[in-house]
Design brief:
The chain is of the alpha/beta class and 517 residues long. The protein has three domains: 185 residues, 3-Layer(aba) Sandwich (Rossmann fold), CATH 3.40.50; 195 residues, Rossmann fold, CATH 3.40.50; 103 residues, GMP Synthetase, Chain A, domain 3. 33% of the residues lie in helices and 22% in strands. It is built from 14 helices and 23 strands. The strands form five sheets. Strands 2-1-3-4-11-10-9-6-7 form a nine-stranded mixed sheet, with helices on both faces. The protein has a five-stranded parallel sheet with strand order 14-13-12-15-16, sandwiched between helices. Strand 15, helix 10 and strand 16 form a beta-alpha-beta unit. The two termini are 42 Å apart. Bound molecules: xanthosine-5'-monophosphate (XMP). Catalyzes the synthesis of GMP from XMP. Pathway: Purine metabolism; GMP biosynthesis; GMP from XMP (L-Gln route): step 1/1. This is GMP synthase [glutamine-hydrolyzing].
Length: 517
């Protein structure tokens, strides 16, 4: 792999993603990892990320010079560039010339590995206080900016490179090309991390892991569990059984997409548990959001547990027990939980958390090396239907937390129709990839007066909550064109009799959350 050494800023994961966009496999490692351990991973190259503002700051992480002497190509960015320059004998000074944000770099394209084939002047994104004032011996200076005389260094002989800016952020116009030049030319790595190779590798390792044993998977209808199941299916075929708990809180068409389209596309052995009534009964009269979540989570576990027992009993045998449970854990979860390589904990995710002791499963986590966009690519490669692959995030408790007030079958039917219209129109307008997700919320206990034809109505409002986001941690309300909003509003109030008002939520997160409950 290419190892991205994380110096503690928020950039390491982004760099790892950019490396993979250059079709090279990458992993994030903490800066505290000893050089020997790092080299034991046999890295094809090492990238030093940005980090704290100054190499002179108290507790600024050190760079062990041994890392630069191992013969492995190294690329330092921002803090990584300064730490590297200093370790190689260059000078880093507090020049007082701070540069933040966009600036222009003049680059030497003639005698450069990093900048070959690029414009001589490029907008780059900077964020630094200290500067490298003297390049290390043996390194050429191939870029300068107004405030930074040494903005890039290159040493082809030792294959050591660095830039003062952040090539991983989109504001750095040529950033991806600089990174590709390092990876493909400087480090000589072949770009072969493609979806079809990824699928082949994962299939091989799943086969090795589970052997002849049987595997169980809880399908939610979301992207991750669907792609994980499709991968395991490709690897071990009919050793896999999937369980889909239909809790009746999904949106229009979603249960059918899992029960029919997904099965047709992948051929998985699917057990569908129709638990709609059970969930409705348990939710009757409940209005508090956290209580709803708790009830839905508990019911889910009970239903899944029973299905799992039946499957262990029916499908397993002494020689091929049902021993494995598929989890859709993604790479960011792995990095955020410390990159642990040991036994993974089941996420406290309601889907499959808290299984009883007599159902001891080991985990198969086929997606644990992948970012979300890679999961989608792998899904497409495996032939998972596009409606599932491109599905927007949808909360586990589903429509249960999009009805403000108590949940019942009638209210679910109203919301399902309004939601289907909103989704259809957003898709028709080509906005699916611009919008992170668009909850449609039914204010079931609110009534407002309206007029339809010559009659007065007393109906419910629905709220449209389209948001733009990178990771759901923060979000902004999405600027959906007025015409699209108008069409959605007209259609919902015409086609869903019980709804006589459509309102738009224009709150960012924070202070609002994405969901209303
Ligand atoms: P909030 O509303 O907290 O949502 O801004 C952030 C993201 O999480 C989703 N969400 C949930 N997902 N179980 C889930 O699996 C839940 O209880 C839950 N609540 C919110 C929400 O849709 C958004 O993507």
């Amino acid at each position: 792999p290419v190892l991205v050494v994380d110096y503690g800023a928020q950039y390491a994961q982004l760099i790892a993603r950019r490396v993979r966009e250059a079709q090279v496999y990458s992993e994030v490692v903490p800066h505290s990892m000893p050089v020997a351990d790092l080299l034991a991973k046999r890295p094809a190259a090492i990238i030093l990320s940005g980090g704290p503002s100054s190499v002179y700051a108290d507790g600024a992480p050190a760079l062990d010079p041994a890392l630069l002497e191992a013969g492995v190509p190294v690329f330092g960015m921002c803090y990584g560039f300064q730490a590297m320059s200093r370790a190689l004998g260059g000078t880093v000074a507090r020049t007082g010339a701070r540069e933040y944000g966009k600036t222009t770099a003049s680059v030497d394209t003639a005698d450069s590995t990093l900048f070959a084939g690029q414009p001589m002047s490029q907008v780059v994104w900077m964020s630094h206080g200290d500067s490298v004032t003297e390049a290390p011996a043996g390194a050429r200076v191939t870029a300068t900016t107004a405030g930074t005389p040494v903005a890039a260094i290159e040493d082809d002989e030792r294959r050591l490179y660095g830039v003062q800016w952040h090539p991983e952020v989109l504001h750095s116009e040529q950033g991806q090309r600089v990174l590709e030049n390092f990876l493909w030319k400087g480090a000589g790595i072949a770009p072969d991390w493609t979806p079809s190779n990824v699928v082949d590798d994962l299939v091989t390792s799943i086969r090795e892991q589970v052997g002849e044993d049987r595997v169980l998977c809880a399908l939610s209808g979301g992207v991750d569990s669907s792609v994980a199941a499709a991968l395991v299916q490709k690897a071990v075929g009919d050793q896999l059984t999937c369980v889909f708990v239909d809790h009746g809180l999904l949106r229009e068409g979603e249960a059918e997409q899992v029960e029919q389209d997904f099965v047709d596309a992948t051929g998985v052995d699917l057990v569908v548990v129709d638990a709609r009534e059970r969930f409705l009964d348990a939710l009757a009269g409940v209005t508090d959001p956290e209580t709803k979540r708790k009830i839905i989570g508990e019911q889910f576990i009970r239903v899944f547990e029973q299905a799992a027992r039946d499957i262990v009993h029916d499908r397993g045998d002494e020689h091929h027990p049902v021993k494995w449970l598929v989890q859709g854990t993604l790479y960011p979860d792995v990095v955020e939980s410390g990159g642990g390589e040991g036994a993974a904990n089941i996420k406290s995710h309601h889907n499959v958390g808290g299984l009883p002791d007599d159902l001891q499963f080991q985990l198969v986590e086929p997606l644990r090396t992948l970012f979300k966009d890679e999961v989608r690519q792998v899904g497409l490669e495996l032939g998972v239907p596009e409606v599932i692959v491109w599905r927007q995030p949808f909360p586990g408790p589903g429509l249960g937390i999009r009805i403000i007030g108590a949940v019942d079958a009638e209210r679910l039917a109203i919301l399902r129709r309004a939601d289907a219209i909103a989704r259809e129109e957003l898709t028709r307008a080509g906005l699916d990839r611009d919008i992170w997700q668009c909850p449609v919320v039914l204010l079931a206990d609110v009534r407002s007066v309206g007029v339809q034809g010559d009659g007065r109505t007393y109906g419910h409002p629905v709220v449209l909550r389209p948001v733009a986001s990178e990771d759901a941690m923060t979000a902004d309300w999405a600027r959906v064109p007025y015409e699209v909003l108008a069409t959605i509003s007209t259609r919902i109030t015409n086609e869903v009799e019980e709804v006589n008002r459509v309102v738009l939520d224009v709150t960012s997160k924070p202070p609002g959350t994405i969901e209303w409950e």
